[in-house]
């Protein structure tokens, strides 16, 4: 039986595990254990930083990779790339960006229609924080990054950016 004072770390040679709302999910190297007890987040150990906003948890493993690799890492961990849906979530993600002092990919991509962006799950963007004169890639910059001031920029997807996942 786990208690609030229990501290565990599950690790195999290649994978760590994340215990999240009662589910045990294999996650990529660099992550440790996060245990949700009675719907309150107790951090047992996490190799990175986390922020909780409402029902969402944002976390980073500190790795900088291209967009596809960041998305894959988040999905392997049972989440997806961080996608702010309001100012409070944007500020939480910004807190992690500032701690690492690195730009981060967001879970937002350009649609088939040039200059139109949507969440990677296909939902429309109802909240945005574009930097002045952005987006400006006109079909050449399909991904979105967050700057260290919290504003967004459309960017090519092959650059290395901080991985921040949402759960």
TrEMBL record:
Sequence ranges assigned to domain C-type lectin in this UniProt record: 67-166
PANTHER family xref list: C-TYPE LECTIN DOMAIN FAMILY 11 MEMBER A, TETRANECTIN-RELATED
Organism superkingdom: Eukaryota
InterPro entries per the UniProt record, alphabetical: C-type_lectin-like (IPR001304), C-type_lectin-like/link_sf (IPR016186), C-type_lectin_CS (IPR018378), CLec_Tetranectin-domain (IPR051663), Collectin_CTLD (IPR033990), CTDL_fold (IPR016187)
Family annotation (SUPFAM superfamilies): C-type lectin-like (SSF56436)
CDD domains hit by this protein: CLECT_collectin_like
UniProt name for this protein: C-type lectin domain-containing protein
GO molecular function, one term: carbohydrate binding
Keywords on record: Calcium, Collagen, Disulfide bond, Glycoprotein, Lectin, Secreted, Signal
Compartments, record wording: Secreted
Pfam family, one: Lectin_C
Gene3D superfamilies (UniProt xref): Mannose-Binding Protein A, subunit A
SMART domains xref list: CLECT
GO biological process: ossification
A single GO cellular-component term on record: collagen trimer
